[in-house]
Design brief:
The chain is an alpha/beta fold. Helix content is 33%, strand content 14%. It folds into three domains: 230 residues, Response regulator (Rossmann fold), CATH 3.40.50.2300; 232 residues, tm_1862 like domain (pyruvate-formate lyase- activating enzyme); 74 residues, no CATH class. Helix 15 links the parallel strand 17 and strand 18. Helix 11 packs parallel to helix 13. The longest helix is centred in the middle third of the chain and has 19 residues. 51% of the residues are buried.
């Protein structure tokens, strides 16, 4: 491999934050790249500060380097100043661990956590001198892969990515390594041959092995080109999180990064059933890490890294079995040990208790963010975020009573069936939260964060047409006007960026040309407000003869073939459709951990048993309020009855 450090080092004085590119973090590795090993370059296509804490990348980094037939290094998207200098000086994209040229690796694998980084993926490939289009690559080029939540609709990147991994990566990277290793030992004769073999691995999608036919604007058919290529690509799911206690050696950066703390994943998956939440749907079923293993990972991680904050991560950390005892035990163990604080970054309002609040604040008060998501009980029934105003006020009462002065409330706007009363309810909740706090401190305040709703694949809302830019702007302005001259501040996500996100997340293969056009027009770092402009997206759509509203604001029909229908996230399509109908009727469904199985498919598809965890939900939450499914009849019949308003 070509080591580029002698050419990189002179460039660092010319760019912002040169430490982004030097590596050498605590926990980093310098693997030996043996000739017949499969070498992986794991890339997070955003800045170092955003990408380094990503647990998915760190987990695979360790797993691959533990194998005797593989090696792995890391890289991150260079900021625009560095990219300009690299092009001017002829320095290609490189790894940060040993500064090897990306083009020399066997695999360049991207973690895709957000759709607006797609143009950065093309930027990294171009800087690496790898053809951005898969059809132009030779056998000696790296195989370009992608994993992460965004790959559950891989089609917008089908022209650029050779291989997508759908679902959990811990096991499948080993199987991929074995196939590529055999191909490499055989002389890398045919790129199509190895891609065809990779396509037979469960959880692996190879776009070039499929053909797509269109009927006008609509998709008519997606079919495999060969008999041994599956019609439906099933996601990969690891059954037991205890078998994968990673990362064992979390990276400790040399500069400040987002989420700069020890992160320990306590469980994967979620059964709350929030209809807007793609992560909650595609990561089912729930798999908890044993409590003793969590404690060990926390203790070992703090001792090894020197961090003074630990976060217990998941989609809803307060739902972890025995969370009160775990939090109390961890806090007690850390008292007097360097002022280590504990945070639960994914807090359910109805699972947050005064007990948890008092334990967290024993060491140091960290920020508290609650996500009611909707401004009224009706809209929260629609989205299945089944928390009441009383739940919210009780949670913030617990926080303020324990000394917090500020809380953050996260809401979505542009939700299905949303009316102005629902939107104005956001402002009312915020004002009331401040009043609850002022009973404890005159400094009480809250920040309202507003995000425009983007319907995502494999959720009940995948058939919904999202609000346009003007409508989202209007709704944000409603909330801002209502909260002027109050102790509640409002921050919001750019509605234009939400529109572009809708194009990228819900598009088919034809959107690939749009993404490429935006990139060629200089559109990198589209996640960053200072770099984003909607105009290049709309101009590219027009140049390709594509209607943005057809992709973004149009409602889908039940029989329509969706671009991602050949990717199976483990959820039955009829379950999602019936849940969509229940949403339109403003009927919520209780968490299936406390009810009989809804047969969504998540457990049965993977040979796991649905287990009712307890007769009642934890923390006295509101899971039993509203209209429930009951237990009579088949699951589709029960959900359909709720959707029609005739259920129990």
């Amino acid at each position: 491999m070509e080591n580029l450090w002698p050419r990189i080092e002179p460039l660092l004085a010319r760019v912002e934050k040169p430490a982004r590119y030097i590596g050498m973090e605590q926990g980093s590795l310098r693997p030996e790249h043996r000739r017949l090993d499969v070498s992986w370059l794991l890339v997070y296509p955003d800045t170092y500060e955003v990408g380094l804490p990503n647990q998915g990348l760190q987990i695979l980094y360790e797993i691959l380097n533990e194998r005797d037939d593989a090696s792995a290094e890391r890289s991150y998207a260079p900021w625009s100043d560095m990219a300009t200098v690299m092009r001017a000086e002829g320095v290609p994209f490189f790894s940060v661990d040993q500064h090897n040229a990306a083009v020399d690796f066997d695999v360049v694998a991207f973690n895709l956590s957000a759709e607006l980084v797609y143009t950065n993926l093309l930027e990294c490939l171009d800087l690496a001198r790898v053809p951005v289009r898969a059809s132009e690559r030779r056998p000696d080029h790296p195989i370009v892969m992608a994993g992460g939540h965004c790959t559950f609709n891989p089609e917008p990147l089908a022209d650029f990515v050779d291989v997508f991994v759908i679902g959990d990566g811990e096991e499948v990277v080993g199987e991929i390594t074995e196939v590529i290793g055999a191909w490499k030992r055989g002389g890398r004769a045919s790129r199509e041959a190895v891609l065809r073999e990779l396509a037979t691995i469960p959880g692996v999608y190879v776009p070039s092995m499929y053909e797509v036919d269109y009927d006008g604007s609509a998709i008519a058919e997606v079919r495999p080109r060969f008999g041994d290529v599956p019609e439906l690509v099933e996601k990969r799911t690891i059954a037991d999180l205890a078998d994968w206690p990673y990362p064992r050696n979390q990276l400790v950066p040399l500069i400040e990064v987002v989420h700069d703390r020890l992160n320990v994943e306590v469980f994967r998956g979620c059964t709350r059933g929030c209809r807007f939440c793609q992560a909650g749907m595609i990561t089912r079923p729930v798999r908890e890490r044993p409590v003793d293993q969590v404690r060990t990972m926390v203790e070992d991680g703090l001792r090894r890294t020197g961090y003074d904050e630990v976060a217990l991560t998941s989609l809803s950390s307060a739902d972890f079995s025995g969370i009160d005892g775990l939090v109390a035990g961890l806090v007690d163990e850390q008292e007097g040990c360097g002022n280590v604080s504990l945070s639960l970054p994914s807090l359910r309002v109805d699972a947050f208790t005064v007990g948890i609040a008092s334990q967290i604040q024993k060491v140091r008060r960290t920020g508290l963010t609650f996500a009611p998501e909707g401004g009224s009980w009706r809209i929260r029934q629609v989205i299945n975020k089944r928390i009441t105003e009383e739940d919210l006020y009780a949670a913030v009462e617990g926080a303020y009573s324990q000394g917090w002065r500020r809380v953050k409330l996260y809401f979505l706007t542009g939700l299905p069936t949303e009316m102005d009363d629902d939107t104005l309810g956001i402002a009312e909740l915020a004002r009331n939260v401040v009043e609850v706090g002022r009973a404890h401190t005159k400094q009480a305040s809250c920040t309202v964060s507003l995000g425009g709703f983007v319907p995502k694949p494999h959720t009940p809302f995948q058939w919904f047409g999202q609000n346009g830019v003007d409508e989202l702007d209007r709704k944000i302005q409603l909330v801002r006007d209502e909260l002027r001259a109050t102790k509640a501040k409002v921050r919001w996500h750019d509605p234009a960026a939400s529109f572009a996100e809708g194009l990228a997340s819900r598009g088919d293969r034809r959107i690939g040309a749009v993404i490429e056009s935006v990139w060629r027009a200089g559109g990198t770092f589209q996640e960053w407000s200072e770099h984003f402009r909607l105009a290049p997206w709309l101009e590219a759509m027009a140049a390709e003869g594509l209607d943005p509203d057809w992709y973004v604001t149009r409602h889908r029909t039940e029989d329509e073939i969706l671009p991602w229908d050949h990717i199976h996230a483990g959820l039955h399509r009829d379950f999602l459709w019936q849940d969509w109908q229940a949403a339109l009727g403003a009927h919520g469904l209780p968490d299936c951990r406390w009810t009989p199985c809804y047969d969504c498919g998540a457990c049965t598809e993977y040979g796991l048993e649905h287990v009712v965890a307890s007769p009642v939900p934890p923390a006295g939450g509101s899971q039993g309020t509203g209209q429930d499914l009951g237990t009579g009849g088949s699951v589709p019949e029960r959900i359909a009855a709720v959707a029609a308003g005739t259920g129990p």
